[in-house]
Design brief:
Largest sheet of chain B: 6 strands, mixed
Helix content of chain B: under 10%
Oligomer: heterodimer
Strand content of chain B: over 45%
Largest sheet of chain A: 7 strands, mixed
Largest interface: A-B, 29 and 29 residues
Number of helices of chain B: 0
Distance between the termini of chain A: 35 Å
């Protein structure tokens, strides 16, 4: 059972470079999320997609864009990477965005911006 | 504003003993859900247990149980018969009805001593 798959697992960028983090889920979930995890802190929501065709900002959206490509895939793009975006990025999905639904997480992408 | 606080950055316990991890939260809402997630060195976020705020009965899942004190806004996790595989970061998280984002605490690193 794959669940939520994130690629790549690791990435090193130079300041100003761009990249896209990919996320795919095979659980037929409607809602998908992007979080970032910084040292000594819990995860913080960057963007979410409550359903296919919709996206909304979370707590820390600045410097990021997202695309809900289809029901399975939700990508996160850094247009011009900055050292402050060095973090571990997690994608998650849930059946719907209703609070009671459990969010299932991918294994994360560790991103370093030099 | 919704906040989650874990006041114990690190905890350790002897194998086969019992340990309790603390979590407090703050919300003015009455309908919400609380979670404990485990993050082992692999980085994968794994759901340990979930508690619905409207339920008075404490959730249990095998060796894991919670002590949910709604009036005190406290949600502690008890791990019985600790095993080496329980070593991980543990995150407390909350989500209110109508919201999309999980709000996480800072995490508690649990070490199991053989």
């Amino acid at each position: 059972n794959a669940g939520v798959t994130q690629t790549p697992k690791f990435q090193v960028l130079k300041t100003g470079q761009s990249m896209t983090l990919q996320c795919a889920q095979d659980m037929n979930h409607n809602s998908m999320y992007w979080y970032r995890q910084d040292p000594g802190m819990g995860l913080r929501l960057i963007y979410y997609s409550a359903s296919e065709g919709t996206t909304d900002k979370g707590e820390v959206p600045n410097g990021y864009n997202v695309s809900r490509l289809n029901k399975r895939e939700f990508s996160l793009r850094l247009e011009s990477a900055a050292p402050s975006q060095t973090s571990v990025y997690f994608c998650a999905s849930s059946l719907t965005s209703v609070a009671k639904n459990i969010q299932y997480f991918g294994a994360g992408t560790r991103l370093s911006v030099l | 504003a919704q906040t989650v606080t874990q006041s114990q950055p690190e905890m350790s316990v002897q194998e086969a003993e019992t340990v309790t991890l603390s979590c407090t939260y703050d919300t003015s809402e009455s309908d919400y859900y609380l979670f404990w997630y485990k993050q082992p060195p692999s980085r994968q976020m794994i759901l340990v247990i979930r508690q619905e705020a409207y339920k008075q009965q404490n959730a249990t899942e095998n060796r894991f149980s919670v002590n949910f004190q709604k009036a005190a806004k406290s949600f502690s996790l008890k791990i019985s018969d600790s095993q080496l595989g329980d070593a991980a970061m543990y995150f407390c998280a909350a989500i209110i009805q109508g919201a999309q984002k999980l709000v996480f605490g800072q995490g508690t690193r649990l070490t199991i001593n053989p």
